[in-house]
Prior knowledge:
By secondary structure, the protein is an alpha/beta fold.
Amino acid sequence: MSRNRIYLDHNATSPLRPEARAAMLAALEGPGNASAVHAEGRAAKAALEQARAAIARGLGTAARNVTFTSGATEAATLVLTPMLHREKEEAPIDVLLLGAGEHPAVLQGGRFPAGAVERVALTPDGALSLPALDAALARHAGRRLMLALQAVNNETGVIQPVREAAARVHAVGGLVVCDATQAIGRIETTFETTESDFLFFSSHKLGGPMGAGALAAAQDNLHITETLLRGGGQEFGRRAGTENVAAIAGSRRCFRGRVEGAGGGGREARPAARPAGKADCADCSRRPLLRAGSGARRLRLGFRPSRHAGAYLVDGAGSFWRRRFERLRLLVGQGARVPCAGGDGGARKRGVARQSGLVYARSRCRTVWNGSIGGRGPYQVATFRRLIGGTGSAGGP
């Protein structure tokens, strides 16, 4: 990426961190297959198991419960299956409940038949509606249930009530799968904080390489009895195929830098030299973090409820701000055309934006951008404000 570009799209991917790159290059020097028994193979296996142990330690589980995958999409497809049991004699899962704003990799329902998948509505703030979840659980009383819920929404940055939802699902004997892709390294995300049964993530959201991720189980009595990839016995028989040791080594380094140093699943420590703000982004309630322009050139940044530090939404007149971003060489998230309030919705992105309080009763339409400015809240908001000439602060205008 050019040094003249200012990268503000960490929700899509984070640039490769230097320590991850160094670990990958070192791993590529070795020719070993982690399944081989000679010295080179054992060295590759040792690197693999060191990464597994680091991820398990950060999430709060045993190393054997971590399965390496090619990323979050594969992990979601692997774990979203009716053939998931606490004990081998348990019947298959009957119903998969999904938050209505989940990533498409989860919204597809994994390996559940379409008739067994049900979406649970969001609140106007874009969080899972707990009353709607209660109603869904009541409708399916007596059936085996699974809930799939992301920890942080990939478009709005809204922190989902995973812990509260898990308590409800566990009370009826169900299982909870949490997509932690946008949360790990940004907010504290462990099995203890989420009370979920499974967590999964992709390393490239942490500054690691693309094509690497992991699925972790809270306990070793959770079994996926129908694997997605069949072949060799890699990954304890849960995921066949020669492991990508170089990518996994890079994942370990970025995971340690972003998670272990923050005490496990949490935010990266903020350097003392960074200027203090009035409040972290996650503490802002219903006030914009930044305002700029007026009328047809109006822009607001960072709406509504609890979001992870650094997440932003930009709501403004599309053509004007698109040109402004390009002139400033700001690389922001993909634009989404939002219909006027009262429209029929359509695309999931428009629906999430509307449910996040971005669309109000007015006649004109506009564009919404989304992304992450790196995870340190007030510092990045102040930087963004200086770049585009807005007003306001990390604590509100």
